[in-house]
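Please fill in the sequence for the structure shown.

STRUCTURE ENCODING:
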């Protein structure tokens, strides 16, 4: 197998399959990485992490390690993705390396990850609306569903407009967090009397391995999205160069921002105060600037969450689009509007994310989705190794140094994290596994028919 077209039936290629629009630039690629990562997590996660890791140096070290793991894990993804740039994230890479069945599983897992990400971002959005004292009679779950629908509407406007909005939103978010860090670092050290919810107060007393594992879960989820540029390989100009630049630069920017924000929060609050907070960044701003600081940070959080939900819809829809175009899913999901939006893929993604958001459980969604994200990275890592072996002559615009050491180390780290999370929470791990494998028998029944539909037979 020597080319991307080898995965698509000849008749399907000849019939001019639906195409995305190559209208995005390097700035968008960088904005995708930064924008995919920065959102709900950094506003809420420090409190959960501090409950498991109370030591200040270790607390900050854990955030730095999270960025380093992302950088290492990105190496096989960038090598494989830049070699055959196609939309859809892990799906086209796994399909090329291991065939259609593994490709389907990779696509399904990454799609699930996007559905859950939209859902828990939407849930936190609803919580922030209530924190501002708005829409009190409306349940959090209903507000979450409204955000999902609004993100779908924005995506339907078209790729060019959505891409431009993401570039602006990511720039605003990055600048906002830098300004926030500077303001907090310039403020005196204060330990306010926090009025944490009973659940948070109980969680603040969490000690032992369970607290540490939950901290690892949350840090991993907070960095989730670093692979965002790979989803738009067919829409970014010169993807063979833009993918590496956007991914690695974006990870460095995000890691720096995360460490700075946590240093700034620790400058204002003690670890115990952070652990007792369900929105540590907002409480730090409130301690430093008064009630207006908390209001400003919460409002800024709403903006960040809305932008992140919109971007996750944009990413997730490319997965099912690519799978449908290749005949792995129903052909209709590959329909593209004149503006470059895979309309039915967007509709399906938002429908299921709204259902999931209706549950209203942030930490439950994080626990169930973490294994999916890890498995997606593992599949990409093994795919990059296999492609080096079976396609040694494939042009690789970016090659990981010291191959295969970075890929092996990344695989060991990700596999260890997966074992740790499942060991700590076997029930949610079981639900994660069941969700992944349950549709496989149904897919095997219909896969051949969908292939024929895609080929125009």
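FILLED IN BY: designer on duty
SEQUENCE:
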């Amino acid at each position: 197998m020597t080319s991307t077209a080898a995965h698509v039936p000849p008749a399907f290629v000849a019939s001019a399959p639906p195409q995305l629009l190559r209208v995005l630039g390097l700035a968008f690629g960088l904005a995708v990485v930064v924008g995919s990562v920065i959102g709900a997590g950094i506003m809420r996660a420090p409190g959960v992490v501090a409950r498991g890791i109370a030591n200040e140096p270790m607390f900050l070290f854990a955030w730095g390690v999270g960025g380093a793991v992302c950088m290492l894990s990105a190496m096989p993804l960038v090598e494989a993705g830049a070699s055959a740039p196609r939309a859809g994230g892990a799906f086209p890479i796994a399909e090329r390396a291991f065939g259609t069945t593994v490709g389907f599983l990779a696509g399904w897992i990454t799609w699930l990850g996007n559905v859950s990400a939209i859902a828990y971002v939407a849930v936190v959005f609803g919580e922030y609306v209530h924190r501002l004292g708005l829409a009190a009679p409306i349940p959090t779950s209903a507000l979450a569903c409204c955000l999902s629908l609004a993100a779908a509407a924005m995506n339907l406007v078209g790729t060019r407009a959505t891409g431009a909005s993401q570039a602006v939103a990511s720039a605003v978010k990055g600048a906002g967090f830098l300004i926030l860090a500077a303001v907090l670092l310039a403020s005196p050290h204060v330990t306010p009397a926090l009025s944490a919810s009973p659940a948070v107060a109980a969680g603040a007393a969490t000690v032992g391995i369970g607290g540490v594992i939950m901290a690892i879960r949350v840090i991993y989820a907070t960095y989730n999205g670093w692979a965002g540029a790979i989803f738009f390989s067919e829409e970014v100009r010169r993807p063979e160069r833009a993918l590496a630049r956007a991914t690695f630069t974006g990870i460095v920017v995000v890691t720096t921002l995360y460490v700075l924000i946590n240093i700034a929060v620790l400058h204002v609050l003690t670890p115990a105060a952070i652990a007792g907070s369900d929105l540590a960044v907002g409480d730090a701003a409130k301690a430093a600037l008064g009630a207006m600081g908390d209001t400003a940070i919460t409002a800024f959080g709403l903006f960040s969450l809305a932008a992140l939900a919109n971007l996750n819809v944009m990413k997730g829809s490319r997965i099912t689009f690519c799978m449908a175009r290749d005949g792995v899913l129903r052909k209709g999901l590959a329909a593209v509007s004149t503006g470059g939006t895979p309309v039915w893929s967007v509709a399906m993604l938002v429908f299921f994310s709204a259902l999931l958001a209706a549950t209203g459980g942030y930490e439950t969604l994080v626990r169930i989705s973490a294994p999916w994200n890890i498995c997606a990275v593992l599949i990409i890592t093994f795919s990059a190794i296999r492609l080096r072996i079976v396609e040694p002559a494939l042009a690789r615009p970016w090659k990981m140094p010291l191959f295969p050491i970075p890929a092996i180390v990344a695989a060991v780290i990700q596999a260890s994290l997966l074992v740790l999370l499942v060991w700590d929470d076997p029930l949610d791990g079981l639900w994660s596994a069941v969700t992944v494998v349950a549709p496989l028998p149904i897919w095997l029944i219909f896969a051949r028919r969908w292939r024929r539909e895609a080929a125009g037979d």
